[in-house]
Design goal:
The chain is of the alpha+beta class. Helix content is 47%, strand content 13%. It has 17 helices and eleven strands. Strands 1, 2, 3, 4, 5, 6, 7, 8, 9, 10 and 11 form an eleven-stranded antiparallel sheet that branches. A hairpin with a 5-residue loop joins strand 9 and strand 10.
Length: 664
């Protein structure tokens, strides 16, 4: 299933009863009527769970019959636009297709979907044409009868919608079209409508002061869910045309506006003689392939940037009302609740094939796991640890798709760095291969999401978040002190991992048991596989294979430290979203650790790309195809890796010294 993403550009108007017959389209300036109006009779039935699980997440499900788009429609609203998926009606129109149920399974948690509103609309459509003969806008005059299926309340009204047919029109031309139509409607007594969407009106969740708004079903159902549906008293009668239910005035204003995304700037970091950037993956300390930084809402991450979506708007949910958490227990409920909700929403978006959803779902699973690990001393029993292990497996299952995306994004920049020495056709072919692999891996992810094991994980995450088994100490602890403990615990892990890596580097031995694994999250072969570390003899040397194994061993240490640093970032971002700031000294230590993530991330991006190029070279050799382009790129990537590994030990020394100073 693939969702279509579009932005409807439209305005709504209301006319007094009977005024429609007085509309004189001959008054239009610069536009003409293309043909006689076409009449449609439509019925739309909206569905949700009894507790409005879809509406609370800005998702709307409807079954429409009549008009030009019969079928089941799933709509989701978010800052980047409205995503919509349509599924045809079955032979029995009332029967919900399995594809629709599967798409919504993570949101509903297995709860039944029932009708919440039925809208019957008589629509008369006019097409308006410009002087050049192009159809520019559509005017729909709607007479609506709506039934709130939860209460039996009937509401009727009339409204007019003006929608542009060409969303690429320059903004000035758009305004000219709207102004011309509005002048005609105002001349007949019309005025801009305050209605957000028909479903909002049907459920009694309107804000008359909101002003002219687009027909956004997902946001409207969310408002109804937040308002409890605006349920009238028993015995409410039918409302007259053009009237509005005003009893909930102002309650839901702004509820569909999330917090904006915050940048990940380092705060309170100290000047050092050695900056992390100087230990990057190129000779001059720059890397044109990936800059690891947060982006503004709606932006696209650079390759490898593990962007943390900070703000409920990014996950499609509204921020919590009221004051922030006051105790450790309240903090944990808030943290786990928000992260569980975010995971469920990205699961839905991945099913809907929203761009970047698989990547963000992986970040969501890692963020939740990081918080569970950081909060372990504040939680009773082993349920949190078990959940963290299952989340780790989920993140690993999502990694292949992301690695292929990183590769496709990095290839053009890497080729450009070689000054045109790599044939453009070869680069294009390699990039197409990576993109095809990413699409295949993403399809595999979506198949996994439909399995019982995954749905059970989502249910268990939500259940745990709703009632986390907190300790008595957590209940008595102020929220800010609990935040300090969680962030300090994550920072101490970075300190331990960095110290162990340096000790092994100095000793020249990888140590016994499980060690650093550069392939755990990147898809590259593990350090243990490459180095023969299980013997406890350290990296091999003296041969080409041994030199490669030694390189992998060094990179494994850097990868382990990078994972620990990212945990700090995830925990800090979750605390910030929950409205709790740790004390200044702890925030400073976290900011100092963050400064090293970019340099480490650039090295790990190079690992992903180098391993992909090596595999591709082998496949091309087997197929007896030209390997010139891949050979050039692979050689350059190996140089990049060796440069990063050579500077890695010094980078870890500076990081460890800074953390020891910060943490005492």
């Amino acid at each position: 299933m693939t969702a279509t993403t579009h932005r409807e550009i439209e305005r709504k108007y209301e006319l007094p009863e009977g005024a429609g017959t007085r509309v004189d389209w001959g008054l239009l300036e610069g536009l003409g009527v293309a043909a006689e109006p076409v009449e449609h009779r439509m019925e739309a039935v909206y569905y949700d769970t009894e507790d409005m699980a879809l509406g609370r997440r800005l998702v709307a499900l409807r079954r429409r019959r009549g008009g030009a788009d019969d079928g089941w429609h799933v709509k989701h609203h978010e800052p980047s636009g409205r995503h919509e998926l349509q599924v045809p009606l079955l032979r029995s129109p009332e029967r919900m297709p399995a594809a629709v149920r599967g798409l919504l399974a993570g949101l509903t948690g297995g709860r039944p979907l029932v009708p919440i509103a039925t809208l019957r609309t008589v629509r008369r459509v006019l097409v308006l044409r410009g002087p050049e003969g192009t159809d520019l806008a559509e005017v729909a005059a709607d007479d609506v009868e709506a039934v709130d299926e939860r209460t039996g309340t009937v509401r009727t009204w009339a409204e007019w919608e003006v929608e542009l047919l060409d969303g690429t029109l320059p903004e000035q031309r758009q305004e000219e079209v709207f102004a011309a139509v509005e002048a005609v409607l105002r001349a007949a007594g019309g005025r801009p409508s305050a209605s957000r969407a028909k479903i909002a009106r049907a459920l009694g969740a309107e804000d008359p002061e909101e002003g002219t708004a687009v027909d956004d079903d997902g946001a409207a159902v969310a408002a109804a869910a937040a308002d409890g549906g605006g349920r009238p008293q028993q015995g409410s009668g039918t409302e007259g045309k053009g009237t509005k239910d005003k009893k909930d005035k102002g309650k839901d204003k702004g509820k569909d506006k999330g917090r904006g995304e915050k940048g990940e700037k380092s705060r309170g970091g100290k000047k050092r003689s050695i900056r992390p950037e100087s230990s990057g993956t190129t000779g001059d300390g720059t890397d044109s392939g990936a800059k690891h930084s947060s982006t503004q809402a709606g932006g696209k991450d650079k390759p490898g940037a593990e962007r943390v979506r900070t703000g409920a708007a990014d996950a499609g949910s509204a921020p919590a009302n009221g004051a922030g958490p006051g105790t450790g227990e309240e903090l944990l409920r808030t943290l786990l609740g928000e992260l569980a909700e975010r995971l469920v929403l990205w699961d839905f978006k991945a099913r809907l094939a929203v761009p970047d959803a698989v990547h963000q779902m992986r970040i969501g699973s890692r963020s939740l796991r990081s918080v569970l690990r950081a909060a372990a001393p504040l939680l009773e029993g082993t349920a949190g640890d078990e959940l963290a292990l299952r989340l780790r497996e989920l993140a690993r299952a999502l990694s292949a798709a992301r690695d292929a995306e990183v590769t496709a994004e990095l290839l053009p920049a890497r080729a450009a760095e070689l000054g045109g020495g790599v044939p453009a056709a070869g680069v294009a072919s390699l990039r197409r291969t990576a993109q095809e692999q990413a699409e295949k891996a993403t399809a595999g992810v979506r198949r996994r999401l439909g399995g019982r094991e995954h749905l059970q994980l989502l249910a268990d995450v939500q259940a745990f978040a709703a009632a986390p088994p907190v300790t008595d100490a957590a209940r008595a602890l102020p929220a800010r002190d609990a935040a300090d403990r969680m962030l300090v615990r994550s920072l101490h892990r970075v300190e331990r991992v960095a110290r162990r890596a340096l000790e092994e580097e100095v000793a020249g031995a990888a140590g016994q048991g499980a060690g650093p694994d550069v392939g755990g999250a990147t898809g590259a072969p593990s350090a243990g596989q490459d180095s023969g570390r299980s013997t406890g003899a350290g990296p091999a040397s003296g041969t080409d294979a041994g030199a490669d194994a030694e390189l992998r061993w060094h990179l494994g240490h850097l990868h382990s430290v990078r994972k620990a640093v990212k945990r700090v970032r995830y925990v800090e971002a979750a605390l910030r979203d929950a409205g709790v700031r740790p004390h200044k000294a702890v925030r400073r230590a976290a900011a100092d650790a963050h400064e090293y993530q970019d340099a480490l991330g650039r090295i790990m991006d190079a690992v992903v790309l180098e391993q992909w190029l090596a595999r591709t070279a082998r496949s091309l050799r087997t197929a007896r195809q030209d390997r010139y382009a891949v050979g050039l790129l692979h050689g350059a990537e190996l140089v990049r890796l060796r440069t990063g590994a050579d500077g890695g030990r010094e980078l870890l020394e500076v990081l460890l010294a800074q953390l020891e100073e910060d943490l005492g």
